Hints:
It contains nine helices and 13 strands. By secondary structure, the protein is an alpha/beta fold. Strands 5-4-1-8-9-10-11-12-13 form a nine-stranded mixed β-sheet, with helices on both faces. It has a four-stranded mixed β-sheet with strand order 3-2-6-7. Helix 8 crosses helix 9. The longest helix has 15 residues, at 255-269. The radius of gyration is 18 Å and the shape is globular. 47% of the residues are buried.
Amino acid sequence: MTIHCYGSINIDHVYRVPRMPAPGETLAASAYAAGLGGKGANQSVAAARAGARVVHLGAVGRDGLWARDALAAHGVDCARVRVLDGVATGHAVIMVDPEGENSIVLHDGANHALDPGAIDGLLAGAELGDIVLLQNETAHVPAVAEAAMGRGLEVIYSAAPFDVAAARAVLPFVNMLVLNALEAGQLRAALGVTFEDLPVESVVVTRGAEGAEWHARGMDRLHMPAFAVRAVDTTGAGDCFAGSLAAMLDAGRNPAEAMRYATAAAALQVTRPGAAAAMPARAEVGALLAEGWRASPGSTMWPMSGV
């Protein structure tokens, strides 16, 4: 099967800083790098590195041709990435402190410049049972989700950057919702419902060092503990998890297997600088899993039949 990722392609400008600046403060960066990023591109790379066939749906400006080519170099099919004239490629300014925490400012650029009339064309070739992976950094996400569900595709929605109005519009056309603990709290507070009452089949919540959990109707909550690692850069960790999870589900893995792989992949990803370039290969994740699963006290261990 195929994962069709409709998502952002950004140029990441990454600055290493001694701490996050206070309002009005100017700090000198100790290092700078530019690279491929964007939640969509990150998730596409993560899924491809996990072994999935991935088609990216999105747009860049003429200044971002190298970013499109970098995405393709990771094994992602970029034939449906549009190149738009007169608009800048989306970009992000990312500050990373010594503990690996980050602060990000985004410019939408080409990610919000696609013609809505192009949506059907972007999904051409998708087959029944394929997965469509979505985030909130592109325009027309509800329309893409609705079109995908109408074609019988599985829709996985990563609700980030979080926006209540965007989530409300997309949820009726989603099979799986993926979000972090903060976003989950904001969504439940805004909608006033439990995860089980959301109009989706399943909800996956990532909790950083506390691991991740899967909620679904008719199924006990599945908790997957995190690996203990020293984070170098947490940029793209959630994207790594979401893309890896989609790849494992696309490969037919059960929820526990898919969650275990995604948790291990995200653990490796945060030990490296960068976003898309830091996504681990399937063999690397397999090696980590082969070392054995160290579960937290009172947690449950699930067997993994291979990766």
